[in-house]
């Protein structure tokens, strides 16, 4: 990938430093007509960059908790600015996910679908046309990224957005209006929906999803501009945001969107807790130097791994709040954080009552639950297990799911 990554901490550094998912016929055999040839399930959209191919495979049906049932432990692994470059980390972690019973969320940067020679098609809010703090892409990088996005979706993973130019700080996303956020989102969608036109790869296979329907959530660059983004997201029908900083407690909705923020977990060797993101571990270890002291690389990766595992254990053995983890496809400090994340995936995702899922799957499950049950779960503090056990804590019969809501009994017919 030709794009140069520039991921800034912004307000996150300050916050961190401070402290699952038939019809019947009546014709007799002698009268039955030959079955018609199946229709092509691929319906191209626009210039054929995307397509409707039916329901996404490998999405489990979310089910409502039974009275007294302990909630599963959800873990979400997510990736900012997802794209396939020479490091091939996108394809690598797809393989890691498959091998460990996991699905994930990939937040695609729209400019990674836009070739350098078409950069002026991007008109970022408050910046001149063709500007991007993470660059653009080349044809091979776009082809490789499209391949990974296609395969990831078919494996049950979610494709979200990390928007486009990744502008942070002064003049960045933190200063954007609601209208500017809507424009940025529209452009991110457009670059995904027109990559064939913009690259000339008209004979390539399409992405197998309608991005207008696939896109239901995001993480803002540097976790900045969240307030106005959430207003825009709500107006556009998105379902969640993961741009905040939270403790390990059960999520709630803010203005109609699920707040699925990343969380603070123990930071081994330090007196303060750390945000569940590779970049923030790095900043608090080697500062802004992305390749610090090689002698400390293993220690730093172990600190991230052990911090995430400690956060997992206190939720798993405590309140069962979903653990939200954010990452980048980067080789900071010798790739030690990629090793750490992989070791966490291998450790937690194969447990029988753990579900490593995408944000979409988590939001679907949350929407299927009795709101009163979720409200009760939110009374549990960080690492706090019900004093008299889960059976007693959630013993009241939850109200039946409304008709048409995920988890409702199937209609009989």
By CATH, the architecture is named Alpha-Beta Barrel
CATH superfamily: Glycoside hydrolase/deacetylase
Q: What proportion strand? A: 5-15%
Order of helices and strands: HEEEHEHEHHHEHEEEEEEHHEHEHHH
Question: How far apart lie the N and C ends?
Answer: 52 Å
Which fold name fills CATH's third level, the topology?
TIM Barrel
Which stretches are low in confidence, meaning pLDDT under 50 for 5 or more residues running? 1-32, 409-413
Question: Main sheet?
Answer: 5 strands, parallel
Question: Which secondary-structure class do the elements indicate?
Answer: alpha/beta
Overview of the molecule:
Residues 49-71 are annotated as: Disordered. This is Secreted protein. InterPro entries: CE4 (IPR052740), Glyco_hydro/deAcase_b/a-brl (IPR011330). With 413 residues, the chain is of the alpha/beta class. It has one domain (69-393): TIM Barrel, CATH 3.20.20. The protein contains 13 helices and 14 strands. It has helices at 11-17, 89-99, 139-154, 178-193, 195-199, 211-214, 226-236, 278-286, 297-316, 336-348, 359-368, 371-377, 390-393, and strands spanning 43-45, 50-52, 73-82, 105-108, 158-161, 217-218, 240-241, 245-246, 253-254, 257-259, 262-265, 274-275, 323-328, 354-357. Helix 9 packs parallel to helix 10 (336-348). The longest helix is centred in the C-terminal third of the chain and has 20 residues, at 297-316. The model is unreliable at 1-32 and 409-413 (pLDDT under 50).
